[in-house]
């Protein structure tokens, strides 16, 4: 199905608020939904109020009803739903996201398949588990769902802007509450496909500076100096409520007039739409995001197919470690040793590791059917799993399983 057959929903989700944008192949750029007609009010509190009659209210409407006794109020949905024991919050977050996706009805796009891309502050095992639950609740196929961190949505947004913005390193400063987070994107310009790697840092604004504009200005100016050190910067983005109030004077002087600087709040939700689009449409797209949850290498085994040797790739460089991998089956030829080719990022040569399948059943060669799967457990660790699958009606499976850890 082409990109024109999908309608992309991009959601920026954090502990307290969410934003939602939509995009399709016939639009020039994604559009963010405003909660107030005629105004740019994009942030929606992650809150749901459910009445005893099964009616739901969302965001600000839910908050207005939080003290009522004729229903249940759920707030900070993402923060609470990360706990796998908070099943009610998980279901309410799924209801909340479903409501955000229904904003697509404002667009005349009948027949387009829904694709959901979600940006969260950080990819953790808890976040992966939560969104697998939500994906199933929303009845979305794995092919129509994508989870990313803020760095990847920033990357997808940035590299869809003018080339002058990302000519050198690009920096985002996200200032919310007392926390300042920086994301620096650096492009490795070698090769047909350019690797973009993030450097993420975090600072806490001292409490005594919260209501001291000039002190806050100097503190953040020093954060910028530290971040810019020994880098050539071509683009700067400032997002978050922390930049409100017109206190930036020294800050803007340090950023300087030679860098393109932008300020806004809906970058992550726009970037999520772009990331979803580029997950489907790769033509002309020669960048990939090398974030902390991307696989650092690929694993292959050599097999005979149609009598000719060929390599079977079990993992893909640059894929998310939590993306499901394929299972492949083959006939065992009697050799208990298995050679595995491991190619890691930025190295031309592959290393070969040999694993031994001990205690194989004593049968004639090619009468044992084995299955193999490489299961990533992080961006740099993979568990190679092999098991006896039986041999039709002739032999039942012995239940034998071999597992070998592989480091990338």
Task: Please explain how this structure is put together.
A hairpin with a 6-residue loop joins strand 19 (337-344) and strand 20. The model has no long low-confidence stretch (mean pLDDT 91). The two termini are 34 Å apart. Helix content is 20%, strand content 35%. It has three domains: 3-152, Nucleotidyltransferase, domain 5 (2-Layer Sandwich), CATH 3.30.420.40; 155-272 and 278-289, Nucleotidyltransferase, domain 5, CATH 3.30.420.40; 297-407, Substrate Binding Domain Of DNAk, Chain A, domain 1 (Sandwich). By secondary structure, it is α+β, with helices and mostly antiparallel strands. The strands form five sheets. Strands 1, 2, 3, 4, 8 and 9 form a six-stranded mixed sheet that branches. Strands 14-13-10-11-12-15 form a six-stranded mixed sheet, sandwiched between helices. The chain has a four-stranded antiparallel sheet with strand order 17-16-19-20, with no helix packed on it. The protein has helices spanning 60-64, 77-81, 87-101, 125-137, 150-158, 213-228, 250-255, 267-280; strands at residues 6-13, 17-23, 31-32, 44-45, 48-51, 56-58, 71-74, 113-120, 145-149, 169-176, 179-188, 194-204, 233-239, 260-264, 287-289, 297-305, 308-313, 328-331, 337-344, 351-356, 369-376, 381-388, 401-407.
């Amino acid at each position: 199905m082409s990109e024109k057959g999908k309608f992309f929903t991009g959601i920026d989700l954090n502990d307290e608020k969410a934003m939602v944008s939509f995009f399709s192949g016939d639009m020039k750029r994604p559009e963010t939904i405003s909660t107030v007609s005629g105004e740019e009010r994009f942030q929606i509190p992650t809150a749901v109020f459910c009445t005893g009659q099964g009616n739901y209210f969302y965001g600000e409407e839910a908050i207005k009803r939080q003290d009522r006794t004729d229903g249940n109020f759920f707030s900070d949905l993402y923060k609470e739903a990360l706990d796998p024991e908070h099943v009610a919050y998980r279901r309410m977050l799924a209801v909340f996201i479903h409501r955000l996706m229904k904003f697509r009805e404002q667009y005349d796009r009948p027949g387009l398949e829904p694709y959901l891309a979600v940006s969260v502050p950080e990819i953790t095992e808890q976040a992966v588990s939560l969104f697998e639950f939500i994906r199933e609740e929303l009845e979305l196929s794995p092919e129509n769902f994508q989870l990313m961190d803020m760095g990847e949505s920033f990357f997808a947004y940035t590299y869809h802007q003018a080339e002058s913005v990302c000519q050198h390193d690009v920096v985002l400063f996200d200032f919310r509450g007392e926390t300042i987070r920086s994301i620096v994107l650096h492009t490795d310009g070698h090769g047909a496909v350019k690797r973009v790697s993030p450097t993420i840092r975090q600072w806490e604004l001292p409490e005594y500076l919260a209501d001291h504009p000039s002190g806050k200005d100097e503190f953040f100016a020093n954060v910028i100096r530290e971040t810019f050190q020994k880098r050539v910067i071509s683009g700067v983005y400032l997002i978050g409520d922390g930049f409100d109030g017109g206190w930036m004077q020294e800050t803007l002087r340090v950023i300087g007039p030679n860098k393109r600087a932008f300020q806004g709040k809906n970058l992550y939700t726009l970037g999520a739409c772009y990331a979803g689009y580029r997950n489907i449409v790769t033509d002309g797209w020669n960048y990939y995001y090398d974030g902390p949850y991307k696989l650092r290498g690929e694993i292959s085994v050599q097999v005979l197919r149609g009598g000719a040797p060929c390599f079977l790739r079990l993992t893909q460089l640059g894929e998310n470690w939590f993306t499901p991998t394929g299972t492949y089956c083959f006939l065992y030829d009697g050799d208990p040793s298995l050679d595995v080719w491991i190619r890691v990022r930025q190295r031309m040569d592959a290393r070969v590791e040999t694993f031994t399948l001990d205690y194989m059943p004593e049968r004639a060669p090619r009468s044992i059917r084995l299955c193999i799967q490489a299961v990533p457990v992080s961006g740099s660790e993979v568990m190679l799993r092999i098991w006896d699958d039986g041999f039709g009606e002739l032999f039942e499976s012995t239940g034998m399983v071999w597992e070998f850890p592989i480091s990338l």
